[in-house]
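Escalation from tier 1.

The customer reports that the assembly of six entities below gives different structure tokens on two consecutive runs. Tier 1 could not reproduce it. I'm attaching the input and our single run for tier 2 to review.
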Amino acid sequence: MPLSQTPEDRSSAMNARIEKSEARVIKAIFPSITNHHNTLFGGEALAWMDETAFISATRFCRKPLVTVSSDRIDFKKVIPAGSLAEIIAKVIHVGNTSLKVEVNIFVEDMYRDHREHAIRGVFTFVAVGDDRQPTQVWTQES
Amino acid sequence: MPLSQTPEDRSSAMNARIEKSEARVIKAIFPSITNHHNTLFGGEALAWMDETAFISATRFCRKPLVTVSSDRIDFKKVIPAGSLAEIIAKVIHVGNTSLKVEVNIFVEDMYRDHREHAIRGVFTFVAVGDDRQPTQVWTQES
Amino acid sequence: MPLSQTPEDRSSAMNARIEKSEARVIKAIFPSITNHHNTLFGGEALAWMDETAFISATRFCRKPLVTVSSDRIDFKKVIPAGSLAEIIAKVIHVGNTSLKVEVNIFVEDMYRDHREHAIRGVFTFVAVGDDRQPTQVWTQES
Amino acid sequence: MPLSQTPEDRSSAMNARIEKSEARVIKAIFPSITNHHNTLFGGEALAWMDETAFISATRFCRKPLVTVSSDRIDFKKVIPAGSLAEIIAKVIHVGNTSLKVEVNIFVEDMYRDHREHAIRGVFTFVAVGDDRQPTQVWTQES
Amino acid sequence: MPLSQTPEDRSSAMNARIEKSEARVIKAIFPSITNHHNTLFGGEALAWMDETAFISATRFCRKPLVTVSSDRIDFKKVIPAGSLAEIIAKVIHVGNTSLKVEVNIFVEDMYRDHREHAIRGVFTFVAVGDDRQPTQVWTQES
Amino acid sequence: MPLSQTPEDRSSAMNARIEKSEARVIKAIFPSITNHHNTLFGGEALAWMDETAFISATRFCRKPLVTVSSDRIDFKKVIPAGSLAEIIAKVIHVGNTSLKVEVNIFVEDMYRDHREHAIRGVFTFVAVGDDRQPTQVWTQES
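Tier 1 run:
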């Protein structure tokens, strides 16, 4: 039987595990990682999103994982030098052998209390066993 | 009138420009950029794809560009330490203010003549003027 | 009158601000940042601690800051390749022109639910004005 | 009998292999890799040349290689921030156990169609066997 | 009997070894390693100090070492972009299983003969054996 | 009158300045900067040599400099992971507008007192004025 997907249906054990899987990374955007427009490289943001998503997925299942895809990603706002960027990743879907993790980046002014949503993406990971074949990502302990 | 999209309809000037926009980057996959499975980080691959796509788009239009989105990206094959990875980017669609660039990564053995397709993605860029507003990416010279 | 120091005496506005100043960064310890014992460089840990403490202090006061000192730092546990490290920084003392931030690093296994305290440090920052002279870090709004 | 050296004398198999050995890398010169004159570090250019030459040599012979020397290198033009740099490497000489690879760097404006030759160098590599001793780099298949 | 600590009491063999343990590293402070105040990150300085201290300690004892603590570090002067920074590390204390290394950073103008002391720190390392347990750092050869 | 070149003929002021121009950098060769043979990349060594030579030349003349060439460089010994590498640069020739700097890399075992010469190179720099034109590198104060 496939694992249920909606928050209502999930076992409370899985929901607790999802809560604890959240991963946060905050970075100061210094000139060394910005382009000649003085904004963060899109590719750098993608690399951060994949790494933070990977950590969140690992925290959920505690198994070796490989990235299998990223869904469409929209860069809504540029992230300027001299700001802070917070990357927040959380598991949103648990399949048999795969996990989906949503990642959001928020841009925060350094010198006033102001914060906006900048980028959202969803990454899919597959758990692999010692034989590098897909393996079950979540076992409901009875 | 929007610019035409199919290769057949494009002006020969645009086609010539697209040919010249191709950008290639080859990398040796050394242990310093691999994870504990001894394969390239997915995020590193995404960062390379965005940068190479950006260069191809710049070569096409010679205007300041920002990344606006990446389409769904599938990681078909892992890229192991001790191989070569070639990233090839080429403009595939020219809109009014935006460009789409296809990027493919091929993995090549170091020590025998063998090469496979590993990752494909499409990145969209918008040309921006001095006022940071979208501007035309391509002007057909009459 | 100097600002009060104990949690009990602090104004509730300051306490609320301190709560919101917490900064978290989680990292996967891959071979690219470990030494030949396969453990994280002490210096890399120090650099992460300073950066995370700087972000926490910035979130508290929203003013330009410079590092003025780090107190004695004990490396209680080594952080091995193939684990996760979480750096958590929080303001613990507010002076007239300076802030103290406590930073802790926890090491977490990738493949089982196990987490230990590894390193603790306290960094002191001074707020500086346009003239690069120390300036007040916190103004109690009446 | 030593392998012949002039293009005319080379076997067509070797010539075909040399053609396919070309390696290209294009980079955007962002502020993070320039010095305080806003131009690319000479040392960074040297590192790129060695890596691209190494890949070209590997593509030719598919054997483990070590750098043994670089010939005199002239830096004819500085490479400014905000330009593109293309590194192109190609095998130019095949010895018994060594290969010579020519590497050229071209600097290309981002915002107009203009390209100039900037740096040329020749790197020599030796093929090594499992015993780390020099081994034959090319075997003419009869 | 514990090893003696004052320079007068140390054996001449140990003193000679301490002299030879000095490690020096000089760096040009380019924009890629400075923050948005155009000065070196405090954390980067800490990482350099730990690495240089580690090398000095290794040169003294030629044994595997781990960082166990850093004493209070004062950042007396900021290190601006466009200057040189010299890190000098030297063993100052030899215990049974541990070593203390003093590290100083000097900031030097690029374009005039002017040099000032910027940062001082003391790092403690412990020698470890194959079993990762503390082991003697210095054996007086009779 | 051109400046004299042999050590005997140089003014004592110039000789004193050359003595003080020496620049030393020591590095621990960790896996993050080695290739899949577990030895330092040739290109990384070249980048270090250029940077250390640049600092030595700057210390001599205290003027803005650009790299104009590197002479033939021989890589006599590979530098393995788990060793120390010391780069030592010193001015060896003073021309009207240019300087030659010799750079040597020594490889030193971490765990025994053993040191060997690995790489030697000579880099030429030209002093440039505000107009980016060559300018005199040394003025004999009478």
